[in-house]
Specification:
11% of the residues lie in helices and 38% in strands. It has helices spanning 18-31, 201-204, 206-209, 304-322, 368-371, 400-403, and strands at residues 2-3, 44-50, 56-62, 69-76, 83-85, 110-111, 124-125, 128-134, 139-152, 159-174, 188-193, 212-216, 227-232, 247-253, 258-260, 262-267, 270-271, 282-284, 287-289, 291-293, 300-303, 336-338, 349-354, 361-366, 372-377, 380-385, 387-390, 396-398, 406-411, 416-421. It is mostly beta strands and 427 residues long. Keywords: Hydrolase, Protease.
Length: 427
């Protein structure tokens, strides 16, 4: 996994400051809640690159031989759909060297019949299995197909080839941007979805994956975040050490998302006066209320009735302890400070989740690296709270920035999410 604005991918101008990169990612986080969809040698694993943008991408090879297409796919746990932009698309988004997947030269490529069991939901396009997928402001349409997918094996240095993998071949791709600028530098050609579903990656390789995968996102507070590896099946394990223990919380899958049972939030040891019903799942017209975990959303987003008590507690903490007042800001993050005091102690922030038995309570402690980022305002030190508001009823979500330096294990059959604090870097 690699972050999307790493210099390795070249998607975001490297002259951008931290402020400019974070500002660009704000709108992505705010749009995610409205998303809607019409170590064995044979391990399944994929490198994941984390970026200061809090977006993550994974390398992939599709096809074989001279027709093999090497690219990056966005890593997204809030969709079951894996799709790639194909040659002949109109409209298209630009990809590095104007290279789309040229399926006509791939010897094992086959378009899927509408009667194929993986054609779900059933969408007949002249006897072929079509698909149509809509995000907030962008959409992709095309034909479901099968071909070889190749994952790099970071243990053996070799590769794992999966024949007949079903994916979407995108021919109509509207309004996609994968970085602060579009154009020839973009190396992202599609999305890899890790939500269960009939056509999903998890389902197609169920005999190997068994509903288990794990990842550990590198911290976004580094200008050049490192790579990490995502594991599937038996190699998706989790363990603590002498100072930390593995925690388990209840998880469910609702409305195209991994739903978590959040009961409340504490700041500096004080539980906030938040009505917990704002985190309870409820379908509401074209969206829903609740609390989800989302790797495709850069930042934590809370419904206003939860966000405002959180924000006020942070403001009170810095006022009472350091006589600091928030500074005006032009972006959507509401709490920014300027201070030359480098000895500031940041408040503890704890998310209180329900345990797997739905009777116990399990705490996730977010430290400074998960909730704040430091800036340089024209030579003056400053920092900001990486928290975004959204109108009630939400939904609220735990974004990638807050997930960094935790290892997560998704146990889908047992509806459990395991986590443990960990420094997530492999290089």
């Amino acid at each position: 996994m690699v972050p999307i604005d790493t210099p390795h991918l070249g998607l975001v101008p490297q002259h951008f400051t931290k402020q400019q990169r974070h500002q660009y990612l704000i709108n992505i986080s705010l749009s995610r809640p409205y998303y809607n969809s019409k170590l064995a040698p044979n391990s399944i694993m994929s490198q994941v690159y984390g970026l200061p943008s809090s977006y993550y991408a994974t390398p992939m090879v599709i096809g074989e031989g001279a027709a093999a297409f090497s690219t990056y796919l966005l890593f997204d746990i809030s969709t079951d759909m894996t799709w790639i932009q194909c040659e002949g698309c109109d409209p298209c988004f630009q990809v590095n060297n104007n290279r789309n997947f040229d399926y006509s030269h791939s010897p094992n490529f086959e378009m899927m019949s509408v009667d194929d069991p993986l054609c779900y939901p059933r969408f007949d396009r002249r006897g072929l299995c079509g698909y149509s997928f809509t995000y907030t402001k962008s959409s992709t349409r095309g034909i479901m197909a099968t071909d070889n997918f190749i994952f790099q094996n970071s243990v053996t240095g070799g590769a794992e080839v999966y024949n007949g993998y079903a994916f979407g071949c995108g021919f109509e791709n509207k309004d996609f941007t994968f970085g602060a600028s579009t154009g020839p530098r973009n190396m992202i050609a599609g999305v890899q979805g890790l939500l269960p579903g009939r056509r999903s990656f998890l389902n197609q390789l169920e005999h190997r994956i068994q509903g288990r995968f794990s990842y550990c996102l590198p911290s976004q507070n580094n200008l050049s975040p490192p790579m990490s590896t995502m594991y599937f099946g038996e190699d998706a394990y989790i363990s603590g050490d002498d100072d930390t223990q593995v925690n388990a919380i209840a998880m469910d899958i609702k409305t195209n998302a991994y739903f978590l049972y959040l009961n409340g939030i504490s700041v500096d040891g004080v539980r906030l006066a938040i009505d917990p019903s704002i985190f309870e799942f409820e379908r509401i017209r074209h969206t829903f209320r609740g609390f989800i975990i989302d790797s495709g959303a850069p930042y934590m987003t809370l419904a206003r009735s939860a966000h405002d008590p959180f924000r006020d507690a942070i403001v009170s903490y810095f006022k009472e302890n350091y006589r600091l007042k928030p500074q005006p800001t032009s972006n959507t993050f509401e709490v920014h400070y300027k201070s030359n005091n480098h000895d500031i102690q940041f408040p503890s922030i704890v998310l209180h989740f329900e345990g797997p038995d739905h009777t116990s309570e399990v705490d996730m402690v977010l430290n400074k690296e998960n909730m704040f980022t430091e800036y340089n305002y024209n030579g003056e030190y400053g920092f900001g709270l990486m928290l975004l508001p959204i109108d009630d009823p939400g939904p609220s979500l735990l974004g990638a920035f807050q997930q960094s330096n935790f290892k997560f294990l998704f146990d889908i059959p047992n509806k459990i999410l395991y986590f443990v604090p960990k420094i997530c870097r492999e290089n």
